[in-house]
Design goal:
Blueprint: H1 8-16, E1 35-41, E2 47-51, E3 58-63, E4 73-76, H2 84-94, E5 100-101, E6 107-111, E7 121-135, E8 138-139, E9 142-147, H3 164-176, E10 192-199, H4 200-217, H5 221-227
Parallel strand pairs: 5-8, 6-9
Antiparallel strand pairs: 1-4, 1-7, 2-3, 4-6, 7-8, 7-9, 7-10
Helix pairs in contact: 2-4
Length: 228
């Protein structure tokens, strides 16, 4: 990789200190077919958690004011970044010319039959598709994956094979999880839309581009430290 996160010194540091979930965990040698996912939230969470990019700890983003809960494990792919290449691909596919990358790691939802009680964990997952989501004018793709070797979901190879209701529940969550009571809505709130649902091969391409964007944006360990 273009950054130096794999240097022996970085590995040695990992023996003494917890790795930063975004920068210190490797995506895996078999990406994009099998990738590591860092899980921030699980379906029983009634508070939205997200990674604090500076410290690497999970922080409370906001309590969910409605009953909407994430219908799958939710997190991101380490050492990914939604930048120029991800944005260009989004524009190519949706015909717009004003899209930017959102500057975050690539989001991933992970389906499993098992109840996982908490986040702040890593998992090997198999991407099978995704949602081309646009938040205002920012590409905010959501990769849909299944837990690697899951007893129920391991047989699904593409999002088109999933039960319709599973896909619709995921869509509903992402289209409503930022909703607030009208009195709490910030002025100029950005609109969120899912403009397409795509299959496994497009998911692979989005993942590849996010990994390229990461290497372009964070050229070295020193560059990472400057950003945090």
């Amino acid at each position: 990789m273009g950054n130096k996160i794999n240097d022996p010194i970085a590995r040695l540091m990992g023996l003494r200190y917890k790795s930063h979930p975004w920068h210190g965990i490797e995506v895996g040698d078999n990406a994009p077919e099998i990738v590591t996912a860092f899980i921030e939230m699980v379906p029983t969470d009634t508070v939205k958690y997200e990674l604090d990019k500076v410290s690497g700890y999970i922080r409370i983003d906001r309590p969910q004011k409605y009953s909407t809960v994430v219908p799958a494990l939710y997190g991101f792919i380490p050492q990914s970044y939604c930048g120029d290449s991800v944005a260009r691909y989004c524009m190519e596919r949706c015909g717009r010319s004003d899209i930017l990358g959102d500057g975050d790691p690539l989001d991933v939802c992970v389906l499993t039959e098992r109840t996982i009680s908490h986040g702040d964990i890593i998992a090997s997952v198999k991407p099978i598709g995704g949602f081309r989501m646009i938040d205002g004018n920012e590409a905010d793709d959501k990769i849909i994956a299944v837990l690697h070797n899951d007893a129920t979901y391991r047989g699904y190879g593409d999002i088109t094979e999933l039960p319709h209701i599973v896909v619709e529940r995921l869509k509903h969550y992402f289209l409503t999880y930022k909703d607030m009571p009208a009195s709490d809505e910030p002025a100029g709130k950005k609109s969120v839309e899912i403009v397409a649902t795509y299959g496994r091969e497009e998911a692979y391409e989005v993942i590849r581009r996010s990994l390229e964007d990461y290497k372009s944006h964070f050229e070295s360990l020193e560059e990472i430290l400057r950003h945090v």
